[in-house]
Structures are given as structure tokens and as C-alpha cells.
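Hi, here's the filled form for the chain we discussed.

Project: internal
Contact: R.S.
Residues: 406
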Amino acid sequence: MGAVTDPRGALAGVTVLDLATFLAAPFCATLLGEFGAEVVKVEQPRVGDDLRRLGAPAREGGSSWWWLVEARNKKSVTCNLRDPEGQALIKRLVAGAHVVTENFRPGTLERWGLGPADLAAVRPSVVMVRISAFGQTGPLHERPGFGRIAAAFGGLAYLSGYPDRPPVTPGTPTVPDYLAGVFGAVGALVALRHAERTGAGQVVDLGLYEPVLRVLDDAIAVYAGTGRVRERIGSGTESAAPHDHYRSRDGRFLAIACTNDRMFERLLAALGRDDLRGDPRLATTAARLAHRGRVDDLVAGWVGRHDAADALAALERAEVPCSLVASVRDLFEDPQIRARENILTLAAPLLGALAMPGVVPRLTLTPGRVDHAGPERPGEHNEEIYGERLGIGRAELARLAARGVI
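And the returned structure, exactly as it came back:
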């Protein structure tokens, strides 16, 4: 008999209190929520989270597409963290939480009586994920920053672009935010495991730039060992050639990556250039790097004489790693994306249908899931969380709302 999928999710029973705004720390909470954790999103009274207003609105007067995607599976409550009554409400929620995520500038929560020591006094096992621009320590820890600043400070922007032009943003400015959310989720899971064994919570301290620095390949080791600074080389890579984007006859771009000699031999076969197998300028990775221009001209010339579909078919037959450089339209049309359910569609109130990225990674027994889009209204779950869970009556909720506490 095969193993049975558990519909509850691996993190069923875990409660996450998301105090953060915008993207990095909230994305950490979103990831945990996709695998079964209950995520309670704390928003500003009346106005809600800033992500609701970032990017295009999904409908006139409504929240942004971005919010609806990245606040998925969350329950929304409103709370003024600057108000003593609001702070008291947060502590009551922490008493039943396992993870708290936040991304305020260091020292802010401490001033509000909601720092790690304050929350640990309420629940000693609580895990606190803190994502800020530069982390909780160091000479820059009080400085603000967003993803673009993290990419610049962490060394990734310097490597992005062409040597005769200014550095460019690698992908989108939010890539560092998403990276930090992933690393924050890993930290939360490690800390939760420790808390299960010992009963002791801890702080997961993450600077927004740190995941960027972590993914610089060997640039740090090479500089420390040789003094060589890696520079921008466009869309190629330092370690292999051909390893770039090439324009087809019909104006599409193909990504081709050959990282060893066997792959390059297969590429020569696809190009119909077996006559070049004995060329010493092409025989090894080191030789091809030394003659990068010749290699790229060879590949670019061949790709440029073919339509993208034909070039890809020939490369695939030769088992050369390749892909169309896909636009978002291409993603919707790709059979691999459909087969893996990498894009899912939800029924969404007021919109009808809402497309968004699927859950990553795939688990066989406890797969992640998306039950609903981000809450349409700030405080949509105030009565459920404050009323049913904390036992606060409707009259008291009305008073707190009138005061701007919730």
C-alpha cells in the first residue's frame, strides 16, 4: 500500500504572527503558511499593509495583485503597535504563537515593548525572525534599505550588466527580498526544531543583503585567495563557454549552457561542426574561456540562422542544456509549467480568477497548498482572532476600533 498524503500539511499546528510589512519577512511567513502553518497577518488599522498599494491594483479601489498573491493563506487582523493597548493585544497573540516575523528597523520593537526579551517573557519557546536591511548588529544596523540596496551592498549588482555600462538590477529589485524570505523560513524551521527539543526559542537575525552575499558563487574565495575582483561580463559566465543568451533568426533569445567538454562535443554535433572537434582552441573549458569570443561567435552564428523552435529542437536532440529565454507570456503557454502546476489559478472574490505562482518545493506526503488569496480587507479576521481566540467581546472590539487600536 502506498503512503497517504496528509491533507493537514507538515506545519499544521504551528501559528505564525506576521508583524512585518512589504515583502521579505512577510514572504517568510507566506512560505510557512503554504505548508500548513496558520499565519495571522498584523496590519495597520484602517490603511492596511503597504504591499496592498505597491504595484497595480487588481481592481479599482482594491488591493494590488502583489498583495493578493503574497498574502495568500493569511488571516488579517489590524493592530496599532505604537499604542499600549495594541502592544498588549500582540502579547496575548504571542502567547499562542510559535513564530513571529518582523522587519522593522532595529530597536523599534524594543521601544514598543515587543522585543525578543518581551516576547520570550510571554512565551519562552517563541521563534522570532527579524529581517532588516543590515541585521541587528554592526555599524550600519540602524540604516534603512530595500532590495535594490541589498543587491548593491551584497555585491550582486556590481556583477550584473556589461563592462562598459553601469551595473543593472539583477532580475527585479525584489529578488533580495524573496531570497531573504527563503533564508528566513529555513532559519525559522531550524529554530522550531530546536524549540521542540529544548523548549527554548531564539532569534533568527537576517540582514537583507546577507543572502545576496551568500550566492556569489566563488567570488569571495577567489578574491581572498588571489586578490582578483570579479567584474561584469554581460550575460555570460566566468566559469564556462558557451554559457550565454543567443538571438535566433525570428528574434527570440535562447539560453545555452555547456559546462564541460562532453556537453560541448554534443553542441558541436548539433551545430554540424564535428570538424572542429580537434581544434585546440575549443578542446577544453580553459581553452574555450581563453577564446570566448570565437566560441560565442560560432554559437551565435548558428542560432541566428535558425528560428528558435528549430534551434531548440536540434539542441534538445543532442542533449545540450538549453531553453527559450521566457517571457511571462511564454510561462503561461509552456507544457512543462502546466504539468508541474507552477502557475495555479484561484477563485477570488470580486475578481473571478487569480493566477499566481504555485507552491515550491513539491513534497510527496505533505504538499503545500494555497487555499485563498490575500485578505481583501484589512482586519478581515479581527472578530475571529480577537473575538473567538482571545475572548474579546464585540463591544470591546468596537471600542478598540473607535480608538484606532485595531
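Let me know if anything looks off before we file it.
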